[in-house]
Amino acid sequence: MLLERIYDEDLAQAGYVIGCQATGEAVVIDARRDIAEYLALAARHGMRIAAVTETHIHADYLSGTRELAAATGARMYVSGEGGADWQYGFDAERLHDGDTITVGNITIRARHTPGHTPEHLVFLVTDGAFSDEPGYMISGDFVFAGDLGRPDLLDEAAGGIDTRFEGARQLFAGLRDVFLTMPDHLQVFPGHGSGSACGKALGALPSTTVGYERRNAWWSRYLTAGDEQGFIDELLDGQPDAHAYFARMKMQNREGPAILGDRAPVAELTVEAVADGLERDAITFVDTRSPDEAHLGTVAGSLNVPDGPKTVTHAAWAYDPQRDARPLVLLAPDQAAAQSIADRLLRVGIDRTAGYVTTIEGLPAFVPPMVTPEGLPDVDAALLLDVRQRTEYAAGHIPGAEQLSAARVLWHLDRLPRSGTIVTYCQSGTRNTVASSALRRAGFDVVELEGSYAAWSAAQQSRRNSAAASPALT
């Protein structure tokens, strides 16, 4: 049997390829939308992708189930659980609790495990060439290494009202009636790792076991004691802010993301063509350099989305394709870098990249205004805005600041003053640069705090140290 994880560091998301080497058939679970890596893996092992499926209607990325099925002719399977409100809107075979997918010697059995979402499934994998019992679980957003899928996303990002409490009760029941009935040796492969917003304390391990979680997970003591309310209280406490773009992902994944098929390579554009597009307000310019570089000078009206570990996430915070139909033009060092960014943006439904340029010379210039921590008291600000997570804000913030995370700010502009200066900060500066560029593009007067909260805290500590070292006046 072949079992390989394909992991996206940006979204901290895992998909899986499970194949029978005897027959050369494979199943892909929780594929993302840029499918080249799955096709290459199958080809490398001489396998045909015969089936594609997913654990649930995802919120943090667009599913590649339809894209992969269209490219390979594979049969599609999706959950049929969750009731009428949680049925997929496209043609695919429906899986219910106990249903199976078979490829060669491998049997993949669906188990309904609601809580994170009402329709959620996990998949128990049996390698019939070695055993008649499952040895592996693809757990999706049910159980992670050291944590559980959050049950509050429907409230936070999909318009639900107090669904988190029923979701938490369902997770408690699923752990008791499904997960903990499995043998300790069962290997568990979750849908996310550390850094995902689908839980609050996910481990970075690529897999775990039922036995390890039974002995060590925070939730185990509540299951042992039968303390459902204690479990619910701890599960719901301290969950991070949900990204606002999750609502768009939910809607598109339920109805079925558009199938892209073959795409033309991202083309290099002339500076003259880009300047014309900017003058006509026909494009959205994206500066993909680091915040430090962009702060020295960028393009007027541009978004700053650094090319790095969180490019896709940050782009989805700063640009909503449902509200802004203008295609992106990327600042990138070469075609390979531009193509890589454009391909990754497909994962969050940002499909329209018109091209790229390698320089900003000849384009309308803009230097983002900054203020140092020492100069902050002199700024007549209408609002001091903390764009970190609410948990970070609660742990310490600049006096007088209000919190609205960078992941949500573009969707809550009504909470911001339309006149006057807004001073923004995050922890060290990257999230702040993304959010402030999006706010400027939306018409707000924004000044960034240089070095953000880390610099302000260091300045405060330096002041305290200086005061302590000064001799007392007599």
Helix and strand topology:
Blueprint: E1 2-8, E2 13-20, E3 25-29, H1 36-44, E4 48-53, H2 65-72, E5 75-79, E6 93-95, E7 100-103, E8 106-112, E9 121-127, E10 136-140, E11 143-144, E12 147-148, H3 153-157, H4 163-177, E13 187-190, E14 208-209, H5 210-216, H6 220-225, H7 228-236, H8 246-255, H9 271-279, E15 284-287, H10 291-296, E16 298-299, E17 303-304, H11 311-318, E18 328-331, H12 335-345, E19 353-357, E20 365-366, E21 370-371, E22 381-386, H13 390-395, E23 402-403, E24 421-425, H14 430-441, E25 445-449, H15 452-469
Parallel strand pairs: 3-4, 4-5, 5-6, 10-13, 15-17, 15-18, 18-19, 21-25, 22-23, 22-24, 24-25
Antiparallel strand pairs: 1-2, 2-3, 7-8, 8-9, 9-10, 11-12, 13-14, 16-20
Helix pairs in contact: 4-7, 11-14
Helical segment count: 15
**Morphology:** globular
Mean pLDDT: 95
- The level of helicity is 25-40%
Write up what this structure looks like:
This protein has 15 helices and 25 strands. With 474 residues, the protein is of the alpha/beta class. It folds into three domains: 2-255, Metallo-beta-lactamase, Chain A (4-Layer Sandwich); 271-366, Rhodanese-like domain (Oxidized Rhodanese, domain 1, 3-Layer(aba) Sandwich); 370-462, Oxidized Rhodanese, domain 1 (3-Layer(aba) Sandwich), CATH 3.40.250. The protein has a six-stranded mixed beta sheet with strand order 1-2-3-4-5-6, covered by helices on one side. It has a six-stranded mixed beta sheet with strand order 7-8-9-10-13-14. Strands 21-25-24-22-23 form a five-stranded parallel beta sheet, sandwiched between helices. Helix 12 (335-345) links the parallel strand 18 (328-331) and strand 19. The model has no long low-confidence stretch (mean pLDDT 95).
